[in-house]
Amino acid sequence: MAQFLFEADLHGLLKLDTPIPNAPPARWQRKAKESGPGPSPVGVSPMKPANRSHSSSKTPSKTPGKSGSKIQSTPTKAGGDRYIPNRSTMQMEMANFLLTKENDPAEESPTKKEQQKAWAVNLNGFDVEEAKILRLSGKPQNAPEGYQNNLKVLYSQKITPGSSRKNSRYIPSMPDRILDAPEIRNDYYLNLIDWSSQNFLAVALDNSVYLWNHTSGEIIQLLQMEHPDVYVSSVSWIKEGNYLAVGTSVAEVQLWDIQQQKRLRNMTSHCARVGTLSWNSYILSSGARTGHIHHHDVRVAEHHVATLAGHTQEVCGLKWSLDGRYLASGGNDNLVNVWPCTQGGGGDFAPVQTFTQHQGAVKAVAWCPWQMNVLATGGGTSDRHIRIWNVCSGACLSTVDAHSQVCSILWSTNYKEFISGHGFAQNQLVIWKYPTMTKVAELQGHTARILNLSMSPDGTTVASAAADETLRLWRCFEMDPIKKREKEKANSAKSSIIHQSIR
């Protein structure tokens, strides 16, 4: 029996030397080849049958078949034993270093960070690091403004697609009130309404000026020109709201006291109609049809203190910045000039900036209330564009095609928005988001072109005067009640400005 097992084992060993197609070599075969020249791999079998015939072995061999002995047999298939890898050639320290480095929050160089941010912005449209929602630590960051998730509908809990729209404040599409404005002059170059800080709306109707008290609804006729051919061409309130400047078609600039309802002064320095007015403390600036701008110091008898000659045609837009540093003027010559503040003393003055990109008359000029160096301008029928400027650098920050004549622009003091009034063909008001220049809402109702816009002192209501002889009041910038109370407290805490006496 032992002889039979031995022959069977030897037979199996011989079979292992026979090459088997498509069979991987066993581990002992590979080791034999790596060890170089030597005895045949037959004598190195894992079963070690050669030790059984040598008595010189330190451990006496056991006779196969005896009780208690385990009989081993040659594997019937090559490669049956498990593979034990040799890790002597592996760089374990290097692998450990690389794995540790990936988890190590080591700071990258600023140049590499900027490159990664630029790649992310070019590929995704936003910085991935700033738009992460899930983070290991800290609070989740909000997605950048304007980002829209393409799979937003899939994560919506509501069924209707309309529920995925972003909630925004309610803007009434109809005016809050409509007032008659008979015989208002349909002239693009005139500025015929203005709203005071004391809540009086001044309206010029042909040769008369009316005051409408928004609080009580009372209407007062302030003045009427003595000659029927003379008409009022512009009105403008002083900041405190107790004096009204009136420009006429016969080149006069009148000053009226509202409390006493009497004329204080009649200043004559122009030689053509005065189509636009703007106050800067006690300095009243007036723009005329000749293209000249005059500064009037209303405190002194010799009121004409400076002349600005930067336009070749009628000045139809004029506005001082809120900090009083710059005066912006727009004219029928398609130019926008930005003038520095002058403290009197005659002489020649040059604009610090001149913008020539508009292709039509520029009547709409408005300063941003929270960025003092940002100016918005709008062009007439030949241009139809709204442009945003940085008057310090002279750069055009944004441009948008309004597709219609731009007559007036007002910045909101309650939101990062502005509103524009337009002529042909829609005769509408448009609210724009800043700085994205996207439309927030369109307000329609006028049947003729809008001539002027004016803002209420609380910044919630816009008055629009149009050639359809109506005044419409739009409550388009209504504030949240909580924010409104906070703003009222802040305004009441401010100290009152000392009023300059006018002689």
From TrEMBL:
A Gene Ontology molecular function term of the record: anaphase-promoting complex binding
Biological processes per GO annotation: anaphase-promoting complex-dependent catabolic process; cell division; positive regulation of anaphase-promoting complex-dependent catabolic process
Top-level taxon: Eukaryota
Gene3D superfamilies associated with the record: YVTN repeat-like/Quinoprotein amine dehydrogenase
Metabolic or biological pathway: Protein modification; protein ubiquitination
PROSITE patterns per record: WD_REPEATS_2 (PS50082), WD_REPEATS_REGION (PS50294)
Location of the CDC20/Fizzy WD40 domain: 179-474
Record keyword Transcription present: no
Cellular component, GO annotation: anaphase-promoting complex
Keywords annotated in UniProt: Cell cycle, Cell division, Mitosis, Repeat, Ubl conjugation pathway, WD repeat
WD repeats: from-to residues: 232-266, 308-339, 443-474
UniProt feature, compositional bias: Low complexity: 35-46, 56-70
Chain intervals for the UniProt region annotation (Disordered): 15-84
Function, in words: Substrate-specific adapter of the anaphase promoting complex/cyclosome (APC/C) complex that confers substrate specificity by binding to substrates and targeting them to the APC/C complex for ubiquitination and degradation. Recognizes and binds the destruction box (D box) on protein substrates. Involved in the metaphase/anaphase transition of cell cycle. Is regulated by MAD2L1: in metaphase the MAD2L1-CDC20-APC/C ternary complex is inactive and in anaphase the CDC20-APC/C binary complex is active in degrading substrates.
Family the UniProt entry places it in: Belongs to the WD repeat CDC20/Fizzy family.
Assembly mode: Component of a complex with CDC20, CDC27, SPATC1 and TUBG1. Interacts with NEUROD2. Interacts with dimeric MAD2L1 in its closed conformation form. Interacts with BUB1B. The phosphorylated form interacts with APC/C. Interacts with NINL. May interact with MAD2L2. Interacts with CDK5RAP2. Interacts with SIRT2. Interacts with isoform 1 of NEK2. Interacts with HSF1 (via phosphorylated form); this interaction occurs in mitosis in a MAD2L1-dependent manner and prevents PLK1-stimulated degradation of HSF1 by blocking the recruitment of the SCF(BTRC) ubiquitin ligase complex.
Protein name, as recorded: Cell division cycle protein 20 homolog
Taxonomy of the source species: Eukaryota, Metazoa, Chordata, Craniata, Vertebrata
Gene that encodes the chain: Cdc20
